[in-house]
Each structure stands twice: as structure tokens, then as C-alpha cells.
Specification:
InterPro entries: DnaJ_C16_autophagy_reg, DnaJ_domain, J_dom_sf. The protein has 606 residues and is an alpha/beta fold. The protein is 40% helix and 14% strand. Helix 3 packs antiparallel against helix 4.
Amino acid sequence: MELRKLSISWQFLIVLVLILQILSALDFDPYRVLGVSRTASQADIKKAYKKLAREWHPDKNKDPGAEDKFIQISKAYEVTSKNYVRFLTGWQQENKPHVLLFDQGPSIPLLYKLTAFAYKDYLSFGYVYAGFRGAEEMARQYNINVQAPTILIFKEHINKPADMIQARGLKKHVIDDFITQNKYLLAARLTSQKLFHELCPVKRSHRQRKYCVVLLTAEATKMSKAFEAFLSFALANTQDTVRFVHVYSGRQQEFASTLLPNSEAFQGKSAVSILERRNTAGRVVYKTLEDPWTGSESDRFVLLGYLDQLRKDPALLSSEAVLPELMDELAPMFLLRWFYSASDYLEDIWDSVFHNNWREMMPLLSLIFSALFILFGTVIVQAFSDSNEEQESQPPEKEEVPEKTGKTEPSFTKDLSSRIPKKGFVEVTELTDVTYTSNLVRLRPGHMNVVLILSASTKNSLLQKFAFEVYSFTGSSCLHFSFLSLDKHREWLEYLLEFAQDAAPIPNQYDKHFMERDYTGYVLALNGHKKYFCLFKPQKTMEEEEAMGVSSDLDSSLHLGESRGKSSCVGSKPIKGKLSKLSLWMERLLEGSLQRFYIPSWPELD
């Protein structure tokens, strides 16, 4: 008797445990576990799962029940992630067809990503990994062979794909053609003027007539009977010349009132209009069904009769109107979108900092500190370089001629191959008050302008010789070539030559020979950024230059300017001979071995 009572008690206990397990299973709500509503988007569900998974991971949470909680969270996410119906039913809010790709790879193929990005304004894309446990049910439901990549397009009916393509090694042009043929819903909603232009284009000729059948209906969370009937009619009467669309009368009130002359008769009811666009300004011809659209057999019969009659007689569209532009219903608010994105990023960073261990955070911290080090290092180096340039810009009393081991200009000490001429000519511009600022005062650091001094009588011959001498140096992008008219800007030149202290004394303005001095053939290499110049003066003879040596090369022959421009001197020494040593001087200019004459500021060129 006691054994019988014991067995009954054990049976009762087992039944009680089973009942409790069943009740706990029935009480399991994956949405409640994840802390989201049943209407939450897949992105919100994934975000909530990641947050809870970080918090309750057994390796990071030492709570005794962390492992059970983590298993429960993973199970809840697995259940909710199978809810692909949520993705497919989004066509009503997004007004887009939805595309699903089935493939065996765990990662999304690059070609599919590029396609999704290219058509993101027209379709919504999703990816299903064939190896996922929930994919088997979808494959059976839609009769998919998971051994080959398959693309499904769903429109208004999510129980059956509107179109599908399946092949191994899908090419880009095949996918593009397939997507282009299914860019729009069967009865898409007109949400913007751009979509209206695409779905209902303006006719180009009588053979290219395009008619739009517009359903004007009230907004509803679920498909109304009137819309379902309109959708089934559109599916059964698909034609190349007819496009079926619908409009929410409450959102596009001006558009709807234009097509409904008697708005009171259609108050709170649906209506159907057939229209044809005549121009882009909004002019249309249309015909509105006299009775409200209920989707009954009589309504379908009347609409079908109008469409058949329209093929024979386009004059059926007797009414004419100018439609206002459609309001863009899906236009995103930039500030709100930016705010939500910023808040999501900040929340992810906050969760990563407080729920990840420091070992996982080390790469991120290393990247941040490296960026800060590079930033501050660049600022410090720039500050020191600016101070050095300010010190160098101060004109010294007298700068000695640098020796062979002296400092060279880094911008010009380049490989000889960089000086190969890139053009078959020398571009020489005139230095005037118009080009003065850009060619000298605001010349970029490291650049120099080589200026030839000439007069009106010597212009042609000196320019020809000047181009010949400097042609081999035109390959350097740091050198610019100009010429200055001595007849126009003699005072500017005299002011600069006063800073060439080793040259022969420059007479003042009361000298009787002041305007007779000949400076033609002088060449000045001007560094606009550091405010200094190098001077080339025409040489007398080669023997005199060799006797004077390198150290007195720049100090000689300002006396040559005292020739006072006499014709006898010009005849004894041809004008072109003044620039015979210019190429050697240019070599020394690039080496940085020429004497520099600093000035406090560049004078104005009147």
C-alpha cells in the first residue's frame, strides 16, 4: 500500500514538473526578453540583442545566472530573426518591392552589395544564408533550390514571389536586367513628383501613349477591400500602355481634389481616374469614374470597358486639368536623421567602453592615441617652421657669399631628371601691375620667378636669347619666367638694386645720367615668399670673369651699366652676348650658391 502511494506521488511530481515546463515555454516571449515591441524593426531587434549579449555574456558577467540568461537571449534573437515576414510586409510603408537573395555563403557577395546600393532608392534588399537553420522553412515555402544562388522579388503579395531568377554564377548585366524589370510595385503609391514622372511619363507620340489608372483612397494600416480589388484588377490586366497607381487622398489633397470635381460625392470613399499626361508642366486629360470605387464586379466591368474603349478612341479622356506637384511623402528630415545616427553611434561607443574588456579596447585606443600624436606632432613642426621662416625673412646687414659647403635651397636641389623640359617652348610672361601679386608677392613657398630686364628696342633679341639660355631649366615646376619693361618700371628696379650692396653705387634721382643708365640684360631671381632676390649682371668678357674668380662674380660689372646706352658700345658687344653666361648662373641658382639680397617688403609696381 505504501509503495503504491509512493508511486502515485512520484507520478504526480513528474506531471507537475511537465506542466511547469509547458507553462514556462508558453510564457516565453522573445520580444519581452529582448525588451522590444512586436512592431520593432529588425535593426532595433539586432541592436537590443547586441546590447544584452554584451551585458550577460558569461565571460564578462560573473552573475551565477548569466549563462542561463545569455542562452535565453540567444534563443529569443534566433526566434525573432526568423521573422522574415516583417521584412516582406514593409512594402506598404516603404512603397518598394523587396528582394531576397539565397546563397550558401555566410557573407554577402560583393556583387549583391553593389546592386543593392545602386537600386537602394527603388527596392529594399535582404540576404538569407542557406546554412541558417530558419532558411530551410523559407526554402520549402518558396520552392527554392539552395544549391544555386536564387533572387526573389516580392511585391504586394508576400506569400508568392512576383518574380525569381536562379542560376550559378549570376552576371551583373543579368541581375541588372532582372532588377530593372521589377523596380516598381504592381500598384505603386505616388509619393513624389519624381515617381510620378517615372510611372506616368509624358507621351512623346501617338504611338507611345501611356495611361495611368489612379486609385484615390484613404490611408489605412492594412489593405482595404477597395485596394485589394484594385490590386487584383491590375494583376489581371497588366499592359505596356497602362500603369496602375494609387494615391492617399489625405496626404495629397490638392492632387486628389483636382481629379475629383464633385468632392462631396466621394467624401470618405475611393475613386478611380484614368489620365494621360500631356506636358511636364502638369497638364493632363483624364476621366473619373462616376461612382465611387468599391471593388465590386460592376466596378471592375466599368473600368475594363473604359480601358477597352480607350484603345480605340483616345478622346474618351474628355476632362482637362493642370495637376499640382506631388508632395514628397518619404523625404527624410536631415536634422532628425543626423540626430538619430549620432545617438546610435554614441550609444554603441558607451556600450563598448563599459561592457568590453580592456584587451578588446586596446586596438581602438591605440588608433586614437596614434591619431592624436600625429595631429599634435604636425602642429608643433608647423609652428617651429613658421618661426624659422620669420627669422630668415629679416634682412641681414650683409650676407657673405656661401662657400661650397653652404646651405642649399631644398626646393631646388632635385635630381637632374626632374629638369627635363616638358614643353617645346619657354613660357615668359610680362611682369605688370596686374600679374605682380600672383607672380611675385603671393608666390608659393619654394617657387622663384626669374625676371629679365629689357627695353622696347631690345625686347625681341633679348627674349630670344633668354629663352635659349633657360630652356633646359623649364622642366622644374618651381621656376617661373617673366620679363620687365625698363621703360615703364625703372624706379621699381632702382629701388631693388639699392639692396644689392656689393654692386656699384646707384645714383640718386638728381644724377644727370639717371635716366640714361642701361640695365637691359639684367636678370633677377625673385623669391616672393622669403623676400630676397639673386642678381645676374651682363659680363664684359670671359677673360675678365676668369680673372675676377667666383667670389667676385656677382660684384663685377655694374660699371657696365655706365655705358650710358651709347650705340658704339652696343655695336662692339652684341645685345645677345649680354646673356651668354646666364645658363651657368642658373646652375648656381639651383645649387643655392648665389648671394641673396633681402628686402623688408616688395615695393608696389606702378
